[in-house]
Design brief:
7-stranded mixed beta sheet; 11 helices; single chain; alpha/beta
């Protein structure tokens, strides 16, 4: 159990302005005293904690007092790419694996500096940076304060998934109560009431998300997704296009090609993209599975080939997909110029069972 009884006292010098305010508002003393008192009973096995409350209720003061060596407000980013801002002792595989685990799964964005990323991407990069550090515990202040609330919720869910797969402990400090249901914390300390609540051993369920899929006729919508594709910005206009909406917002793109010259029984995924703000919560696999079911009902074989490490990992763990090939592709006659660009990459091919 960690207890605290913190007294903060401010006694400003009695300048003309201070004296004027004291007189105008009939304040009895210029000495301002605040007392924050409570306890965190966290003597159990936990991974994610939440300190939440309105502004001015002591969240930052308490966090710094209880966890001085783990408190984070921001990291220093100075390199030309996010990759080179990660800890020097970490391998490239460790870095990219951690990026994928927190839902920062766009290789083109890994080559950008931190300053040009969206606020949602920055939030995920900060978490990846903390996971890659040596500290077992990290406390993140102003959590989700600068992002859209839907982005904050989806991002919180992706983050707690990443933390639970790591050996780290994470405490979010925020004034936003709306992230609690998505962060699924093991305990919560509310600074409005100075009360502690434990969820040890309780089942945690993510809130319901409205997920809709539509076949889309206007293929120019690819422009909205092109820059986020891990490999190519091009798109075959012959492909059938599907769009995924999450809580009424456009979030995903999936297109499917028929290649009769290779195998007339197969429908193959051409492009699959989930926008960055929605990555890390499993929407890509859900989207892929739902479209696959549609084609399977129509008696088509449904396949996908990918070089995306995060997608390969997810499909390998999913028992409704069978891996038909894993290894480096080789150039052979008949491939288009675009397909030749994939030669010599680690690629996996999967088929829906």
């Amino acid at each position: 159990m960690q207890t605290f009884d913190i007294i903060k006292s401010v006694n400003p010098k009695k300048t003309f302005r201070v004296a004027s305010v004291l007189g105008k508002f009939d304040l009895q003393s210029e000495n301002i005293v605040e007392n924050f008192k409570g306890e965190l009973n966290i003597d159990f096995d936990w991974k994610v904690g939440l300190i939440v409350g309105k502004s001015g209720t002591g969240k930052t003061t308490i966090s710094k007092q209880l966890f001085p060596d783990s408190y984070i407000t921001n990291f220093k980013y100075e390199a030309e790419t996010i990759l080179d801002d990660m800890p020097k002792e970490c391998s490239l595989e460790q870095i990219t694996s951690t990026f994928n685990s927190v839902g920062f799964s766009s290789p083109p964005s890994w080559l950008k500096p931190y300053s040009v990323l969206s606020n949602g991407q920055k939030m995920r990069v900060d978490l990846a940076r903390a996971i890659l550090d040596n500290n077992k515990l990290f406390v993140f202040d102003e959590f989700t304060s600068v992002v859209d609330r839907q982005v904050a919720q989806i991002g919180s869910f992706a983050m707690q998934k990443a933390i639970r797969k790591s050996d780290k402990q994470f405490i979010a400090v925020t004034c936003h109560f709306d992230v609690q249901d998505w962060l699924l914390p093991d305990w919560v300390f509310n600074t409005d009431t100075m009360t502690f609540q434990s969820f040890e051993g309780q089942k945690k369920n993510r809130p319901e998300i409205k997920f809709e899929i539509f076949k889309y006729g206007d293929k120019t919508i690819w422009k909205m997704f092109a820059k986020h594709h891990y490999l190519s910005h091009t798109h075959n206009n012959a492909a059938n296009v599907f769009i995924a909406l999450i809580n009424n917002e456009v979030a995903g793109f999936l297109s499917v090609l028929h290649l009769p010259n290779r195998d007339p029984t197969i429908k193959k995924v051409h492009r699959l993209v989930i926008l960055p703000d929605y990555q890390g919560a499993g929407f890509g696999i859900k989207f892929l599975n739902e479209i696959g079911k549609i084609y399977k009902l129509e008696k088509w074989r449904f396949t996908i080939s990918t070089s995306s490490p995060s997608l390969i990992y997810s499909l390998k763990r999913n028992n409704i997909w069978r891996c038909n090939h894993f290894g480096r592709t080789t150039k052979h006659k008949g491939l288009s110029k675009m397909e030749h660009s994939g030669a010599n990459r680690i690629t996996a091919s999967f088929e829906l069972k």
